[in-house]
Amino acid sequence: MKVINVYPLPDKHLIGIPVSERALLPKQHQAANPVTMSMEQVFLLPESEYNLFTHNMERRYTEGFQINIILLQDLIHWPSDWHYGDAVVFLTDPSQEITELLNKLSISFEQTVGESAIWTIAADQYPKLFDIYATMHEFDQRKVKMVAIPGMPHTTSPTPISFPKLVELATQYDGQPRLTLMMATVLQHTKSTPFSVSLPGLTINGDKDTLDVVFFL
Q1: Looking at residue 123, what is its pLDDT?
Q2: Best exposed site among 49, 66, 119, 168 by fewest CB in 10 Å?
Q3: 3-class SS letters over 65-101
Q4: 49 with 57: CB under 8 angstroms?
Q5: β-strand pairing of 2-9 with 65-69
Q6: Distances, alpha carbon 83 to alpha carbons 40, 199, 205, in Å
Q7: For 149, which DSSP code?
Q8: φ, ψ at 45 (rounded to 5°)
């Protein structure tokens, strides 16, 4: 099965398509200059032409294909050894949209390492973790909507995740699991207990000793 990454850019109404799929694009876009998104060279296709591209994918890859939507949460890499009280130091890839997001939230930029940039949130700025989550969630929802396949089933039922399971996920993956664990830990140290905090698409319940359930909506 063929697997490709796509990079929706809602504010620009463009979708990044890997240069390896050049032959499936309209000729006027095949001659364009590629740009780098998440370390991958892509052509920027107008949103209105995406359905034609997926139709061409269906014709070429008759054994099936899978499209991975690269979200903002996929482009930030969180520290695995973070504890409450530590500064949150994280890396981003070269994508311009991540830089724009973090600059808008006034996150501190420190230096670059290779292709990545290092950003830092001091302990007294932990509320910015919630700002990052809310902004990423809203933007990623728009990304998913841009490339949704008509008729694709969509569930709105909440899925409970135990705190040990969240820790396991956060150990294995960057993005939302790691960020959610950080936010839950901050709430555990700063909220009166027991508490229940609702964010867009997420509810965190807990007390000073345990974090009971996390719901991804």
Answers
A1: 94
A2: 66
A3: EEEEECCHHHHEECCCCCCCCCCEEEEECCCHHHHHH
A4: no
A5: parallel
A6: 33, 22, 19
A7: P
A8: -100, 135
| Span 119-148, average pLDDT | 91
Strands (E), the chain: 2-9, 14-18, 35-37, 40-46, 65-69, 76-77, 88-92, 108-113, 116-121, 159-162, 195-199, 202-206, 211-216
Q: Which residue has the tokens 């969630």?
A: 137
Band (212; pLDDT cuts 50, 70, 90):
low
Q: Determine the length of the chain.
A: 217
**Reported confidence tier of residue 83, pLDDT bands at 50, 70, 90:** very high
pLDDT at 10: 92
Contacts of 195 (CB under 8 A, 6+ apart): 187, 204, 205, 206, 207
| Structural contact between residues 44 and 15, judged by C-beta atoms closer than 8 angstroms | yes
Structure tokens at 183: 């936010």
Average pLDDT over all residues of the chain: 86
CA–CA separation, 115 and 89 (whole Å): 16
